[in-house]
Write a structure and sequence with these properties.
By secondary structure, the chain is α+β, with helices and mostly antiparallel strands. It has helices at residues 14-22, 27-30, 122-141, 184-200, 220-230, 234-239, 247-253, 283-298, and strands at 2-10, 34-40, 50-57, 60-72, 76-82, 86-97, 100-111, 152-156, 161-164, 172-178, 204-213, 241-245, 263-267, 273-278. It folds into two domains: 2-141, 2-Layer Sandwich (Alpha-D-Glucose-1,6-Bisphosphate, Chain A, domain 4), CATH 3.30.530; 152-298, Glutaredoxin, CATH 3.40.30.
């Protein structure tokens, strides 16, 4: 079974967003993988309503009939889609976010019968399809830059699968995101300060996030293996989480303008981005991060604060 989970923020009011997404016939407007979408019968959106979709996946067109199986306005809606070869379960939940809406989209896809043996191959393809759909949904909902970490699925060099922000372990997590091999020296410039902070404070965890294009997913074992051999320290391998994804979407989700330098992000367990610093280490950047962490520790209910000092190296 392949799974996909993503979160986005829209400036639109929650009931408006729920009304739009609970009508699954609208998927053709925002999901480039949906070729056709039409309601079956005259039933209004609600439990039992059906929509017939024709989706393009793995080079083939597949017709699925989706039935609404949960309808709880404006909090959640869920759909089950089925054809002769696949079963898809999609659930969308909605939460107020200021004057706008925070949307969480979760999907599962499984192959039926003898085709089920190919399930392990679905993950990468499903991630790509989901990322394209998410980009379309962001455009449709008018999403602006979010101060919430996007969903990032990765694997540590010790072999542990993680989904961020879900698996962030500490009240304060410092993520060093890098996009190119030559940026390792910038990452290394931060590590003495970051690891000392982690040792001195029990509420801080440090992670390195090499963010790599999903097109390299088929050779992940080779790339990750090379990194593992180059890092003899087990603790360094454990904190290095490789993320194979749509890099452009990840950059947008992290609130960055590009991949030309690294970013150090302070993130709360729920995914709230407390601060960003760009480029290599210097004392002023470290001081700003330390101030944000101290403020967050003393005022846990405070709203998210983005560092004013997005300074490039």
């Amino acid at each position: 079974m392949a799974r996909y989970r993503a979160e986005i923020d829209s400036p639109r009011e929650i009931r408006d967003v729920f009304e739009y997404l609970s009508d699954f016939a609208n998927t053709a407007e925002w999901d480039p993988g949906v070729v056709e979408a039409e309601r079956v019968g005259a039933a209004a959106p609600g439990v039992g309503a059906e929509v017939r979709l024709v989706a393009s996946f793995l080079g083939r067109r597949t017709a699925l009939t989706y039935r609404t199986v949960e309808y709880d306005p404006p909090h959640a809606v869920a759909f089950r889609g089925e054809s002769s070869t696949v079963v898809s379960n999609d659930r969308i939940s909605f939460e107020p976010a200021g004057a706008g809406t925070h949307v969480t989209y979760e999907a599962e896809l499984a192959l039926k019968g003898p085709l089920g043996i190919a399930d392990p191959l679905l993950g990468l393809a499903f991630d790509r399809v989901g990322d394209r759909a998410l980009a379309g949904l962001e455009r449709s909902l008018g999403s602006a830059r979010s101060d919430r970490l996007p969903t990032l699925s990765g694997r540590s060099l010790e072999g542990r699968d993680l989904v961020l922000p879900r698996d962030l372990p500490k009240p304060h997590n410092l993520l060093v995101a890098a996009f190119h091999r030559e940026q390792q020296s910038l990452v290394d410039s931060w590590l003495p300060w970051l690891t000392e902070l982690e040792r001195d404070r029990g509420d801080v965890a440090v992670f390195e996030l090499p963010i790599i294009s999903a097109r390299y997913g088929p050779v992940r074992a080779f790339i990750d293996g090379g990194m593992t051999r180059a890092i003899p320290d087990p603790s360094a391998r454990a904190r290095t989480i490789t993320v194979y994804t749509d890099v452009d979407r990840a950059v947008r989700g992290l609130g960055l303008s590009g991949t030309d330098t690294i970013a150090v992000l302070a993130v709360a367990p729920g995914g709230r981005i407390l601060a960003r610093e760009l480029g290599g280490f210097d004392g002023s950047k470290a001081e700003r991060l330390a101030t944000v962490l101290a403020t967050a520790a003393s005022e846990p209910a405070a709203k998210s604060t983005t560092s004013a000092g997005e300074v490039r190296a």
